[in-house]
Amino acid sequence: MADDDYDERAAVGGRPPELDRYLALDLKPDGAIAKALLDGVGGERMVDNRPIELTNELSDRPAGFTAHMDSWYLTSVLSSRHAALAAIKGRFSSDRIRDVPTILVEADRDERKFRAALDKHQTVTDFEKGHSKLREDRDAAQYDLEQFKAVHGREATVTSPVRYILVLALLAAIDLAINFDTISASPLAKGVPLFAVGLTVAAAVGIALASHIHGSLLRQFDYFFHAQEAQRVRAGSIRASFGALALSAGMGIVAYSRWGFLQKAITIAQMLGQPEPNATLLLAGSMMSNAVVYVLGCYWAFRSHDPDPEYEEVARRHAKLRTELDEAYRRNVSAKLTQIDERCRLELLQLDKRAGMQTASPRYETNRALFAEFAEKDAGVRGLLQRYRNTVKNQHPKLRFNAPDADLADPNRRKVLTVDEWAVSDLQLRYHGGGR
Length: 436
Description:
Number of helices: 15
Order of helices and strands: HHHEHEEHHHHHHHHHHEEH
Distance between the termini: 10 Å
Strand content: under 5%
Number of domains: 2
Shape: elongated
């Protein structure tokens, strides 16, 4: 029924019969209409554990309805409500102030909001088409991540690469400060400052690299060495060997530099006739600080890695793709959504100003009184729908619902609600489009 499809005589005088027919709907708790709605409570079920789909803000009917609520609204409420609202809107449009028709401001506000929602969804749809490959990759990574999570029963251990490298760099810097004077004075440096710096850096990097390799390998020991796959064992052995080589190189530079000082100490002791110091103990003691740095590095690597490197890699990939998609969304969509919201806000302000000017019409109060009766009946419909939601919540406490994300805050555009969240979510009937 179109907006002007109402009794023309009622627009001039008298009471719209369409409104009376809507007001006559029997919404009593024990009535047939209420029973038809509540009979659907037992049928609200999740199929294959998938959340129940809800109507969105772009449909003809109100958002947030289950299939049964939507069917009930279509058969029991929509027709009479549509006709009543069209009649009331006709009353407003036939009333003119200086040849300008008055408006039912609630309907026009609803229409502006609906158009804004359409524009916002179109913006997001265009974004999704242009970034379909990135979304597919993100979804594939999300699936892999969920599979690993189901196997391990926990979240992946993932440390920020920047944070991880900074801590290792700090330990390497401490090691560098410990060794610089010794290496500078050793024969290895040959008195050349550039050689001294290069050797000191090489020793620090070797020890830090070894701690990274050995710490992470210790964390992932079961993955590499308790596996049935020879390839994993071979990969773990290669890593362990490479770490040992790096540690030998770093510690070897330090040990050779310290050995020069120990030889001087032994020579002085011999000249003074004192007992020779134990060279091995002296060397081990002088390198204790380097060993502490190595152990700290191993500990940091151990706690920063996941026991399953594949799980960690999948989690990193998913986080990277999600970040890329979110950043692209903010660049290409967020600003446009803000513009649409701002345009809608200004349009609503203009409507409010226009509504304030309509009070000069002698028929304005009469027309508003008719709408007040209509809105009161709407409140009864919403009350019955809320009773249904509460009953569903009490009888099916574990239900989940796949609801539209009206704010479009992220590229996924949908969110899963618990039954408690759904039962208290916004419940509004539409005023635009003739009341649909």
